[in-house]
Amino acid sequence: MKQLLFLLCINSHLPIWAEKIPVENRPNVLFIAIDDLNDWIQPMGGHSQAKTPHIDQFHQKGAVVFQNAVCPSPVCGPSRSALLSGALAHETGAYSNGDNMLDTDYVKEHATLPEYFSKNGYHSLSTGKIFHKHATLTGADWGHWAFDSFRRADGGLTPQKDKFTSQKLGIVQGKKSTGPAPAQSWGALSWGPTVEPLEETLDHLSVSWGAEQLGKEWEKPFFMAIGISRPHLPWIVPQEFFDLYDLETLETPEIREDDLDDTLGANGSSNAKPQNDYLWVKANKLEKEATQAYLASVSYADACLGVLFDALEKSPHYDNTIVIIWGDHGYHLGEKLRYKKNTLWREAVRTPLMIRLPKMDSLHVCERPVSLIDLYPTLIQLCNLPEKKLSGRDISPLLLDSQAAWPHPAITIAPQGTSVLSEDYHYIEYQTGAKEFYDLKQDPMEFTNLISTPKHAKDIAKLAEHVPQERVETVETISGPTKNKSPKTPLDESLKKRRSLSKLK
C-alpha cells in the first residue's frame, strides 16, 4: 500500500489523501499520555460531575473521540511497552511492570515509535512518563534512550500532613483509620492536597516545558511526547482541585455487593473476591472521599493539558500538528468491589483515546472498537513514514469517517487472560479456563455474566476466535536495585548507545 499523508481541505475538517511529500512538510505530532485516566471525562461520560473544561473545549473545536478504545494490557508497563513497540505482550513477553521491553527479542531488533520517527527525519523530544520506568544495574531507565531530546520530569507533590489519607500508613485526614492493610505497600490508596502551589507541581512543570518547546521554530518536524502523571496514585494535587467537588452532592459509582457471584472459575468456584482497597474504603466510609480525590486528580491533569493546548494554539505549529491524547488503561473506583487496575473487565481495559488532525473543526464520536496498539501504524500512515509490519491496524479511515464499517474487535492481553471487546459485547477468557461474557448495550457496568446463555453461543464463539492460542515466555529482565528508580538516580546513558537507529528495523 502506498504511503499516504493527511492533507486538509481548506473549507472542511475532513482530510483528503495525497501521496509522498517532503519530510519538512510532514505534520508534527503532539503525543500526550495521561497515567491511569479512565472514562471519567466529559466526552466519554464516565462521571457526570467530572470537570474537564480544557478537554471539553479541545473536542468541541474538533477531534475524534473513540468511545471503545482499549489498552493493550491493563497495567502501565506492558500497556506502554505494547503501544510503543507496536507488538502485543503475547508476542514480546513483556506482560508485567517488571518486564523491561528492552530485554525482549522484538525490541532489540525493532525501533520503538519515537525512534522510528527519529529514524525517518523527525526530531523526537519528551518529558514526563511515556515509557514505564525501570531500575538498571547502573542507573535509571526512564525511556530517555528513545528520544533525541529528553527532560527528566521533576516537581513537588508533597501532601499536607493534617489532610493526608493513606491506606499504607493507616490514616484518614492525618488520623488513625480502620480496616485491612493493603495487599502490598506500593500503589496503596492515598490522597490529599499538596503543600506546593500548582506552578511548582510535577505535571505543571512538565507541560510548561512542553509549552516552551511548542513556541520554538524547529528545523525538522517534531514528535513531542508529554507524560502527565495524574490521576495515577497518589492522588495528591493542589487543594483548588479538591474544592471543585462538594462531598455532600458528589455521586459515587453504582456498586452491587453481589457483583462477583457470577464470576466463576472453570471448576465452578468463585473467580474473584473483594479487594483490600475496597474493604478499607468501605470500613472507613471513604467512598465519596476516594471519588473526590480521583476526580480532583483528573481536573488537575485537565488544567495541565490546558497549558499545552494554549501554547499550541499560539504557536506557529498549530495548523500542522496532529494531537493524540491517550490513557494507558482504565481504572476501577469501587466497581467490581475493587480499586485500581489490572483486571480484564471493561472498567480496566477501556481507555480514553482522542485524536485531532489539523483544521478539524467539530467533534466526532466513534463507537468502533480500537486499541492503543493501533497508534503506531496509524501515525506511520498519517505522517507518511515507510511502511512497517506491526500488530495493530491503521485506524486513519475512522478519522476520515468515524461511522465507517469496522469489523475488528479490540484485544487486551494480561498475564491472567485475554479480553476481546466488540461494539456490542465483551468476552473474557482466563488462563485458568474461566470465561465471562457481557452484553454492553444492555449491561455496560457488566453486572451479569452471560457466558452460559444459549442465545449468545454464536457471539461468544465469534469473539473467542480472537484469543491468542500461543504466548511467548515472559522476558527475562535483570533489574537493578530498587533505589535506582529514585528520581535522583542518574539516568543510565549506556542504554542509548546500544540503540543504533540505522540497524533497527
Q: In DSSP terms, counting alpha (H) and pi (I) runs of 4 or more, how many helices?
A: 14
CATH architecture descriptor of the domain at 26-155 and 194-274 and 282-402:
3-Layer(aba) Sandwich
Round the Cα radius of gyration to an integer and report it.
22 Å
Q: How many strands, what sense, and barrel or not for the largest sheet?
A: 8 strands, mixed
CATH topology of the domain at 26-155 and 194-274 and 282-402: Alkaline Phosphatase, subunit A
Going by CATH, the homologous superfamily of the domain at 26-155 and 194-274 and 282-402 would be: Alkaline Phosphatase, subunit A
Q: Tell how many strands the DSSP assignment holds.
A: 23
Strand % is 15-25%
Strand order of the largest sheet: 8-5-13-3-15-18-4-19
What gross morphology would you assign? globular
Q: Point out poorly predicted stretches.
A: 1-19
Distance between the termini: 18 Å
Mean pLDDT, all residues: 92
CATH class label of the domain at 26-155 and 194-274 and 282-402: Alpha Beta
Category by helix and strand content: alpha/beta
Classify the helix fraction into a percent range: 10-25%
